[in-house]
């Protein structure tokens, strides 16, 4: 029998995973920002701030996934891909572009590096979630078809309950984003608002 | 057809991997003291690798509350020790031993268990750089070196265990691992044999 929403969202078994909130993806002078800025980005950033604060109040761990490329992980196909996209190198280790955009991790949050679109590909994200016995992953951030979507689908494959927190997701063209979120809702996991999640966390047990 | 040592350690496709040579790693719990005993040979090998243009990865074993599972806590309780290791994240024990001197072009690779393949981009790094042979050093010989040798060959990499640059480098466990590596996982060679290959290579 499917779990009820409140049983999927107990604060002790949830983690918030924020994807790619970095200058190269978000700032208008960033590698991606130069070619495409989502008009809804600032609205999503405001929602993320408030969602993170709700997670902190409920004692839910917040993990900041950060894309890092360096001389050890950049390959010929990756260079070709960047060239085709017109972005040039993205989130190069130590650069301004790799730094967090607006929402910064606090002492109680954890930064997890990733090296490709998915937060699970050869990273320690899964170990972090297992160590805390997490059952439900709440995803927010930027790059719907890249970081958010690939991480979301891998989280589903790894047996987590997965929610896209819709108002905390930005990146890409609004119509494409709506389509991808709808595809996720239909075929992969669940979509929810940050208000509904925070309300569930606040509800008396 | 077996490839020669010289082909295996070719600087264009070999990577020197230094496992867990940290202040808090030695002496390992209940084990023999003195990972420092391999430092003179290891630092010579590192210098020779650098001179030959061989890629170098320093693997740093790092544990924290964020990465310690319940099963690991159970296991440390089972043997009656604190799960907060002597090389715990953010403590001086996590630092590399003096004399290793990683350089900016080297990769510092954080791992959270025996194998760097388990929770980090080891395979991705080796592929992205076109590396094909791992030269394994550091310790412990059974815990880390043997595990990485296994995890490397199953992913398609050639393995060379540097038999005088692992710790411990004598005793029954060492003999067993060296024999096992030679039969199933790769080859073993001394640092001198490897450095001879590099100094004779025409670059």
What does the model show?
The complex is a heterodimer of chains A (205) and B (203). Chain A is of the alpha/beta class and 205 residues long. Chain A has helices at 5-8, 23-26, 41-58, 76-85, 125-131, 144-157, 174-187, 194-202, and strands spanning 14-19, 62-67, 110-114, 136-142, 161-170, 190-192. A six-stranded parallel sheet of chain A has the order 3-2-1-4-5-6. In chain A, helix 6 packs parallel to helix 7 (174-187). Chain A is globular and about 50 Å long. Chain A starts with a helix and ends with a helix. The mean pLDDT of chain A is 95. Chain B is an alpha/beta fold and 203 residues long. Chain B contains seven helices and six strands, in the order H-E-H-E-H-E-H-E-H-E-H-E-H. Chain B has helices at 5-8, 39-52, 70-78, 122-128, 141-153, 172-185, 191-200, and strands at residues 14-19, 55-61, 107-111, 133-139, 158-167, 187-189. In chain B, strands 3-2-1-4-5-6 form a six-stranded parallel sheet, with helices on both faces. In chain B, helix 2 runs parallel beside helix 7 (191-200). The radius of gyration of chain B is 16 Å and the shape is globular. Chain B starts with a helix and ends with a helix. At the A-B interface, helix 5 of A face helix 4 of B.
């Amino acid at each position: 029998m499917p779990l009820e929403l409140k049983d999927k969202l107990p604060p002790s078994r949830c983690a918030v995973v924020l994807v790619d909130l970095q200058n190269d993806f978000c700032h208008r002078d960033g590698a991606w920002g130069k070619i495409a800025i989502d008009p809804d980005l600032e609205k999503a950033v405001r929602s993320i701030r408030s969602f993170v604060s709700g997670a902190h109040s409920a004692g839910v761990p917040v993990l900041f996934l950060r894309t890092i490329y360096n001389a050890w992980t950049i390959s010929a196909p990756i260079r070709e891909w960047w060239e085709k996209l017109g972005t040039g190198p993205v989130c190069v280790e130590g650069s301004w572009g790799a730094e967090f955009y607006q929402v910064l991790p606090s002492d109680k949050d954890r930064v997890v590096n990733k090296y490709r679109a998915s937060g699970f590909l050869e990273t320690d994200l899964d170990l972090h979630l297992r160590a805390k016995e997490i059952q439900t992953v709440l995803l927010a951030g930027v790059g719907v078809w890249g970081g958010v979507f690939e991480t979301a689908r891998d989280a589903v494959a790894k047996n987590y309950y997965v929610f896209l927190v819709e108002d905390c997701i930005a990146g890409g063209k609004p119509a494409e984003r709506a389509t991808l979120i709808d595809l996720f809702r239909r075929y992969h996991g669940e979509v929810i608002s940050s208000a509904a999640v925070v309300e569930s966390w606040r509800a008396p047990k | 057809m077996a490839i020669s040592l010289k082909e295996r350690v070719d600087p264009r496709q070999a990577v020197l991997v230094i496992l867990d040579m940290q202040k808090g790693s030695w002496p390992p719990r209940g084990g023999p003291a003195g990972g420092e005993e391999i430092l003179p040979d290891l630092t010579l090998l590192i210098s020779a690798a650098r001179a030959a243009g061989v890629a170098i990865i320093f693997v740093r074993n790092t544990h924290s509350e964020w990465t310690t599972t319940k099963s690991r806590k159970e296991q440390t309780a089972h043997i009656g020790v604190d799960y907060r290791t002597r090389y715990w994240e953010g403590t001086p024990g996590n630092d590399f031993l003096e004399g290793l001197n990683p350089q900016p072009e080297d990769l510092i690779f954080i791992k959270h268990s025996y194998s760097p393949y388990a929770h980090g981009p080891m395979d991705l790094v080796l592929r992205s750089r076109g590396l094909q042979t791992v030269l394994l050093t550091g310790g412990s010989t059974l815990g880390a070196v043997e595990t990485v040798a296994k995890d490397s060959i199953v992913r398609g990499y050639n393995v060379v265990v540097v038999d005088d640059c692992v710790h411990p480098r004598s005793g029954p466990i060492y003999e067993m691992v060296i024999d096992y590596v030679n039969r199933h996982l790769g080859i073993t060679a001394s640092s001198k044999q490897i450095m001879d290959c590099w100094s004779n290579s025409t670059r």
